[in-house]
Amino acid sequence: MSHIRRDGGKRLLARVRRIRGQIEGVERAIQETDDCYAVLQQTAAVRGALNGLMVELIQEHIQHHVLEGDSEHAGADELMEIVRSYLR
């Protein structure tokens, strides 16, 4: 997926770094608080951020490998594998 680095690498890395910060926030909340609601809320926010990242990655994959791509069938098959694993 070299197009990821070429097309949106900085944007994607910034998103991943924000997610890392959120995960560290969950870790701190677990260590420092007894408020399970706060931990659940932060965990849900992380899940939302990861879902957003996944959507962006799938969109990039569709644009570069399915619509413009190498082989339509290979790109579509690969995409379906990704979606199936994501939905498990």
Question: How do the strands and helices of this protein lay out in sequence?
Answer:
Blueprint: H1 2-32, H2 36-67, H3 72-87
Helix pairs in contact: 1-2, 2-3
How would you describe what is shown here?
The structure is a single chain. The chain contains three helices and no strands. It has one domain: Methane Monooxygenase Hydroxylase, Chain G, domain 1, CATH 1.20.58.1000. Helix content is 90%, strand content 0%. Helix 1 (2-32) runs antiparallel to helix 2 (36-67) and helix 2 (36-67) runs antiparallel to helix 3. The model has no long low-confidence stretch (mean pLDDT 82). With 88 residues, the protein is mainly α.
Rg, Cα atoms, Å: 16 Å
* Amino-to-carboxy terminus distance: 23 Å
Task: Specify the biggest β-sheet.
Answer: none
Poorly predicted runs of 5 or more residues: none
Q: Helix share of residues? A: over 70%
- For the record, what CATH class applies? Mainly Alpha
Q: How many DSSP H or I helices?
A: 3
Strand content: under 5%
Please tell me what the overall shape is: elongated
Counting structural domains, the number is 1
What do the pLDDT scores average to? Answer: 82
Q: And the CATH topology?
A: Methane Monooxygenase Hydroxylase, Chain G, domain 1
